Write the C-alpha cells for this entry.
Amino acid sequence: MKLKKVMKRIGLLFLLLILFMFVNNSNWFHKGDNSTPKLLAHVGMSQTYPMDGITGETCTAKRIFEPEHPYIGNTIPSMEAAFKHGADIVELDVHPTRDGEFAVFHDWTLDCRTDGTGVTREHTMKELKTLDVGYGYTADGGETYPLRGEGVGLMPTLQEVLTHFPNKPFLINIKSNDQEEGEKLAEYLSDLSDVNVDQLSAYGGDKPIQALQEELPGIRVMSMETLKSCLISYMGVGWTGYIPAACKDTQIHIPENVAPWLWGFPNKFQDRMEAVNTRVILVAGEGKWSEGFDDQEDLKRIPDDYDGYVWTNRVDVIAPLVKND
C-alpha cells in the first residue's frame, strides 16, 4: 500500500511538472500586439541564385537568376536601396587589406565576381578600388554579363559605408577565424569617431569574435561557439523560464528547422530574449548558405506574431508583404 501511495505521488508530481512546462512555455496566453517581423537584408540588395548544389567552392555570380534590379551586393547603392525598400538592418562582409583598411566584399578571392585575381585580403584598398565588382555576373552561362562595367570602383571600405549611413544598423561578417582580425576590427571601429558603434553587431569565426568582444564589450556578437553555448544551455533549462548567461546581451541566428525545439518559440522565446537584450534572427533552412525568406511562399513558414528579425535576400519583395499586412 505504501508503495502504491508513493507511486501515485510521484505520478502526480510528474503530471504537475508536465503541466508547468506546458503552461510556462505556451504561447496561448501571449497577448499579441500585431507586430511584424523586422528585416535583415543580406548584403543589401543583390543578385540572387538557386541554392541547390551550393558548396563552398561555388561561384554564385555565374548562376544568378535573370536580374530584376541593377544592384550589386555589398556596395553603397545596394545598401541605400535596401534601406529604402524597408530593411531594418543590413548585413555586410569585410576583409582586412594590406594597407590597414577593411574592404566590404563577400568572397575570399576576387576571381568569381570581379576582373581581379587572387586573395582579396592580399591586395591594397587602392588596388581593390580599380576593380569591377559586377564583372563576373551571368544568368545564361556566360553568353551575356549584364552587370559588367557597372561596378567599377564600387567596392567600399567599411569606413565609407558607416560614414555614409552614420545612424543605420549593420551586421558585420568577419570572414576568417583569425584572432588578430578581430583585434584589428575593434581598433578600426574605435577610431571612427563619427560612427555610432552601438548600431553595429558582428558575427564570424570563434577567435576573431571573441577578440572583438573583449575589446568592444558593448557590441553584440555571434560565433558558432556563442550560438551553441546559448542554444544548448537554453534547451536544457529554458523550460523553467531561466535564461542562461550565454544568451544575454548577444545575438543568435536560428535556423528555422531548429526554432521549434526552443522552449516558448516564437512569442515567449522572443520576449525572453528581448528581456535580456538579445537579438533574434530567423534564417531559412539550415542557415548554411545564406538562405533567406525571399518570396511569399517563404513567408508562410514564419510563425504568426513572430516579431524578431528574419534574414532575406530580397528585401524589395518581402518588405511590401510584411510591412503592409
Observations:
- The first strand starts at residue 38 and ends at 42.
